[in-house]
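To assess whether ligand presence alters the predicted conformation, the chain was also submitted together with thymidine-5'-diphosphate. Input:
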Amino acid sequence: MTAGWFITFEGGEGSGKSTQAKRLADRLTAAGHAVTVTREPGGSPFAERLRAIILDPNLEKHSPLAEALLFASARADHLEQVIRPALAAGHVVICDRFSDSTRVYQGYAGRVEPRLLEALELIIVQHTKPDLTIVVDIPAEIGLARAALRLNPSPAAQAPSEKIPKQPRGLLADRFESRGLDFHKKLREGFLEIARLEPQRCVVVDGQSSPDDVARNVFAAVESRLFTEAR
Ligand code: TYD
């Protein structure tokens, strides 16, 4: 039993979830909540080191299982160093991607046996399951176009919402962004399937709405799913 609330954001590339995670954090902070915003892969010093390896576009060929174990290792450290202590201190922890990304990228759309990933998730996540998962849903074509714009911005073509800097990036897409359209369609299907199977935990919001509307829908989900619940 944790004292805080654990909220995760999930979705495909270019869904706008990182921007929405930050907007939710700002709103909750302004309302007086103690908030920890974090991300995966990464979130702790050790896990950020692993992130740099995992997302390196020049990484040598390696097995899908080896890669899944790197994500698992990063998550184990992130949970231990950051997420669990913050929850124990009563924080709202907002995490940009978490174990559903592994289920979908490595399992559903990837090449690792889903039952193996389930077992790893049980071992690593244990009782620290998200209280709420927001799936920001967007058609793969649109998400990929947005992600391409982020990598190669032409200021005149940018919508205001796209101008929010995400994080410093190189000129190359990371290894997952550079996969084809079919892979990204599969990702979308996978996230929607998880949301369908776990309606208590997951809320799907339409990522094609304006950023303000998405933020309103996210906040409505947080209010109705979490803050009305007695603990
Ligand atoms: P990031 O730049 O954070 O992408 P995004 O803006 O889409 O969140 O890179 C994270 C990449 O790692 C992203 O392509 C999804 C992938 N990923 C996995 O494949 N498995 C995982 O368990 C996690 C957390 C991320």
